[in-house]
Amino acid sequence: IPHGAVDHWLRLKQPALAQSSLILFFVLYVAAMLLVASLWWLSPLVGLSSFILYSAWHFGETDLRDWHNYRPSLAFTWGLGLLLTLLFSHFNEFESYLIIYQISLGQAASTWYLAGLGLGISLMAISIFNVSKSSFRQMAFTALTLALGAFLPLLLAFALYFVAGHSFRGWRHLQEETLGGFKKLLLKALPFSLLAFVFLGVSLGLADYYNWLGANYWPILFVFVAALSAPHVWLMHNFYKQQD
User: Fold this and answer.
1) Does residue 79 contact residue 68 with C-beta atoms inside 8 Å?
2) At 130, phi and psi to the nearest 5?
3) pLDDT of residue 151
4) C-alpha–C-alpha distance, residues 23 and 56, integer Å
5) Of 78-82, 141-145, 178-182, 217-221, which range is least confident?
6) How is 65-121 classified by DSSP, letter by letter?
7) Would you call 165 exposed, middle or buried from its count of C-beta atoms within 10 A (0-12, 13-18, 19+)?
8) Closest CA to 30 of 173, 159, 203, 186
């Protein structure tokens, strides 16, 4: 949420959006979120798959741009490998969330586990051996972080990468390239950070009232994060293109 909370300032750095009013931008942003949430409602499998794909792209792009080795295909390969390794190294927990969404792997669960973990590790290895020596060290360190995260619960392992890795790098890019010092950036992020938590609170309240997914808050939280991420991924990609 913190570095995504300055997306309303990112619009000023993008010619196609710079002239739009803040209200219009906010309406379009929320509309995109509701569209993603509706996709999950109609088909959790499609919603989850799309979330993994655009998150893989976003994580890979942020990491490789930070390491000065960005290539679109390599960014997606790295991001997808990272996410698959993270999810399938915690397969029992991951499968328990899938069941809540009524996604069943059935008798093929063990096959999915081996295939997902093998593909994830392979994609990360391919990425690591296709970058410069300086990036090699950073990518290897990230891979080590994921390996250590395999001994933690899934959510903690994800938070370890997301907070200490991805969010840190994304925040630094915004701070260095466009929006000034840490305190200034934090103040710009504060209104939308608070608004995001209010929106989350309303979502959980509605889930409890209407008994969505048995009022199980974790899967509701994932849908919320997926919806919040979609417009942010698009804005950050355009931001990076403008920097190029």
Assistant:
1) no
2) -125, 25
3) 93
4) 30
5) 178-182
6) HHTT---HHHHHHHHHHHHHHHHHTTHHHHHHHHHHTT---GGGHHHHHHHHHHHHH
7) buried
8) 203
